[in-house]
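Open question from group meeting: does this chain pack into something compact, or does most of it stay loose? Before anyone orders reagents, we agreed to write out a predicted structure and look at it together. Recording both the input and the output here so the notebook holds the full record.
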Amino acid sequence: MKTDSGIFDGTQTVIGHGAQADVYRYHGYAYKVYRPDYNPEWIKFEKAQQSAVNETGLCNVRYYDTDDLYTVKMDLINGETLEKKILAGFEGGFDILAEMFRKVHSAKLDGVKIPGLIDTAGFGVSEENRQKIIPVIERLSAKYGECICHLDMHFLNIMLPFDGTEPVIIDWINARIAPAVFDYARTYVILRECAPEVLGMYEDAVASDMRSLGITDEDFADAVMVSQVIRDREKKD
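Structure tokens returned:
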């Protein structure tokens, strides 16, 4: 993405690329530059999400306003993605992934200003799909109870600082309050789409945690269905 932001002086370097924005390293910070057709309300929502996550202590990366509506300044993590580490031969990636799930799901809910999955899952989906997914979310929420869910947990969203401090989970825009089964299901859907060859390793890594929560195969399959419907809607945005 070529940026027309007047913030940069030409020394910025691209460190991340996504469907909606590019991320640049610039003067000791990271800058997220969104596409000019991206809805500014979603940028506002993402900043609010990050602020809420900061208050939980789950991620200390702060967002800052800039003079450009479509550019957000962020604290820079001096490290690399877990994906890059794995591609270099690291074999503990799924152990870290499982650990990050446990960290997020055990966070306190008191006063957390993150919306519930039940409140947003029906946005932009057909009425037919809405009638399919909302009852499942209601049923599983009543059965398992709720926690903070990242809902986009994968190797690109886990950063490993070079100084050896604990991993940092990034990109919290999808975070919701929901049963943990939906977090595990969402990552399953992402891996099934992008890296199906590692699904078995993923299932092995999270199996004991899912069993400890009492999650049945049938309920997990239902959560995967819900996650796939939401994922399909997102890809149309």
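Observations to bring back to the group:
The domain at 13-76 is CATH 3.30.200 (Phosphorylase Kinase; domain 1).
Strands lie at 13-17, 21-26, 29-34, 63-64, 71-75, 79-81, 147-149, 158-161, 168-169, 176-178.
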